[in-house]
Write a structure and sequence with these properties.
This protein is 31% helix and 23% strand. Helix 7 packs parallel to helix 8 and helix 11 packs parallel to helix 12.
């Protein structure tokens, strides 16, 4: 039975999450706070009493999607009682613009106020609530998250960023870098291990800058300590900044078998001149040297990256350098976007002088080249056997299982038994540019 004194007793909640793994993890933690206050997951927005929209402001398109969703929620609110609010980066950035009669938004909650979300929602029944702020220092949560996966668990190790890249709004939304104490990180990893999780995903805006001042633990040390926890067999992490990446970290990765041979390292541009204007703190050659270091120590490592096209002042020649970098590095995957000015950033103060048409054309060219690179690479995998962590069933075909390889590639496969949550050896039989297909040939006992 639920406690009638709980502020959200009997209410049903739903989340819509935009953005990165950090936002996904935040939604899991917010769901934990709501459940502790007496609410229950609704599953679908259409059947929820409270809808929490977790937002991303890294690109203008993400904000546009938010405002479109808020319009749909306003329509739903006209048909039945409904509370809805905004959390995350846009809540922090646009806190004074979001609430009001026209928007229909009942509550706005910034990162530091997450532990109070149930109280804020309860109070918003009678008035609009805004609770957004940034503070220094780590605040440990007291309520366990409601995790979407029972196989792969997110563990936040730091938040914020001190780099202030010219185009990036993150320091203004997530704030400056703050690091979670190493013992708190390890406690969460041990808890995941006790609950049978197979994979740990470490999260932060700049994880390779991690430092626990009390113990002197850096990121390389942290990887070793997490790897020593019995149970989980794979460790991943995201995101790293190239200027903070060191050869010693590469050596630590190579010496730690549990660390997946997969690495996301945003390059953003293949032109040193564009990188300088972006205030990224490294050159094209610096990045290529990091790639050479990683591949010399871990030849099988699969790399992914972020790419921005159409940054202010980007010439045809500079864009060509991005294409040549893609052709040289041969990423296993990329996330590519057109540049869009973001508020408060240095780049927003200069002319956005690359036309929308040129940006779109360049984006299509990048994506076409990357599709060709991935297709060519995937074809070399036909007939090989890949170790796959099965995370569930295919959304398109429930008779097919889905998972990811150590290189973080999507693998759809058939098996003669239920293998969800298990490691499986999968023979690759066919491929597309974005996924692999095969059949299970053996099952690990663990």
């Amino acid at each position: 039975m639920t406690d009638p004194r709980l502020p959200l007793d009997g209410l049903r909640f739903a989340f819509h999450t935009f953005g990165c793994q950090m936002n996904e993890n935040d939604s899991e933690r917010l769901a934990g706070y709501l459940a502790a206050a007496g609410a229950a997951p609704a599953g679908l927005i259409e059947s929820a009493d409270v809808v929490v929209v977790n937002t991303c402001s890294v690109r203008a398109k993400s904000e546009e999607k938010l405002y479109s969703l808020l319009g749909r929620l306003r329509t739903l609110k006209k048909r039945r009682p409904l509370l809805f609010g905004v959390v995350g980066c846009v809540a922090q950035l646009r806190k004074d613009m979001l609430p009001g009669l026209k928007s229909g938004v009942d509550f706005v909650v910034g990162f530091d106020q997450y532990p109070r979300i149930a109280e804020i929602i309860a109070e918003s029944r009678g008035r609009k609530m805004i609770a957004a702020s940034r503070s220094r220092g780590w605040k440990e949560g007291t309520v366990p998250p409601i995790r979407e996966s029972a196989v792969s668990g997110f563990v936040t190790i730091m938040e914020g960023c001190d780099n202030f890249c010219a185009y990036c709004v993150v320091p203004f939304t997530r704030g400056r870098e703050k690091f979670r104490p190493v013992e708190a990180v390890l406690a969460e990893v041990r808890d995941l291990a006790a609950h049978g999780f197979r994979e740990i995903q470490l999260l932060g805006q700049n994880v390779n800058n991690y430092a626990d001042s009390a113990s002197g633990t850096d990121f390389a040390d942290l990887l070793g300590r997490i790897a020593a926890v019995p149970g989980p067999e794979w460790i991943r992490f995201i995101t790293s900044h190239p200027k903070n990446f060191t050869p010693s970290l590469a050596r630590a990765m190579a010496a730690t078998p549990k660390v997946c041979r997969q690495f996301h390292l945003p390059i953003q541009s293949g032109s040193s001149r564009v990188l300088e204007r972006m205030k990224r703190g490294y050159s094209r050659e610096d990045y290529l040297e990091t790639v050479r270091t990683l591949r010399s120590l871990m030849p099988e490592i699969r790399l992914s990256a972020d790419i921005i096209v159409g940054y202010p002042g980007e010439t045809t020649e500079e864009f060509g350098e991005t294409l040549s970098a893609l052709a040289e590095i041969k990423f296993a995957n990329i996330f590519s976007f057109c540049y869009s000015p973001r508020p408060l950033t240095a780049a927003a103060r200069i002319a956005d002088d690359v036309s929308t048409e040129v940006k779109r054309s360049r984006l299509m060219e990048v994506q076409a080249l990357q599709k060709e690179i991935q297709t060519t690479f995937h074809k070399t995998m036909i007939g090989r056997t890949e170790r796959v962590l099965c995370t569930g069933r295919s959304k398109k075909d429930p008779a097919v299982f889905a998972g990811r390889s150590e290189g973080n590639q999507v693998v759809n496969f058939r098996a003669d038994r239920d293998v969800v949550g298990r490691f499986v050896d999968v023979e690759i039989l066919s491929v597309g540019p974005y996924s692999l297909r095969g059949r299970a040939v053996s099952l690990y006992n663990k």
